Amino acid sequence: MEISYVGGPTAVLTLGGLRLLTDPTFDAPGEYRIGDRKLVKKTGPATTAAELGPVDAVLLSHDQHPDNLDTAGRACLASVPLVLSTASAEQRVGAPVRALPAWESVDLGAVRITAVPALHGPEGSEPFVGEVTGFVLSGDGLPKVYVSGDNASLDRVREIADREGPFDVAVLFAGAARTSVVPDATLTLTSEQAAEAARILGARHVVPLHFEHWAHFTEDGPTLTKAFAEAGLTERLHLLAPGETVRL
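^ that's the sequence the OP posted. Answer follows.
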């Protein structure tokens, strides 16, 4: 498979003849409001949605935060045949978003896409942060891929590994995000947790996303590099620059 990093949580995964886009974010840097709060985007994407070309489906972890689905990202959904996400996203966004409950699957060409649990913060934070989902990609003769979405729970990772593992590739949303909504805990994986998730999943390759370009991330690429080195997993880590593609 190939993974092309656009920026933030956005990447194109090419697998089994399909092009799958994760959490579309194509807006420029600036301040983006969520109610009475704001998120600050520091860096724009490496490419526009138009420059990416057509995709077969979008894997949308959630729709309620502008750092995972922004204005330009919403606009690009109109040209996508299928968007898989949460029940909340289907209700709020409408077509072409389709809810895919945890552990249910849809076959798209040669690829089976299975929704898996995710928790965007500590236990009990769901009423404040909303519903999120992750995905597992599989198929005959294809690598098995875990896409975490904004999951911060290693317990969810263990559950997924027990039911679906081991994995060839883990696409992990990291960055140890922190906001005032849950001030005492991170909303995404820390760098150490990302390394531990790689070990739990048995993933031979790890590609981090969503660890930079927004002010609410408290850890970054160097932190990931250090954590994977300390865990003895350096050879598994593929830390991409925006616009870069890795073939696995």
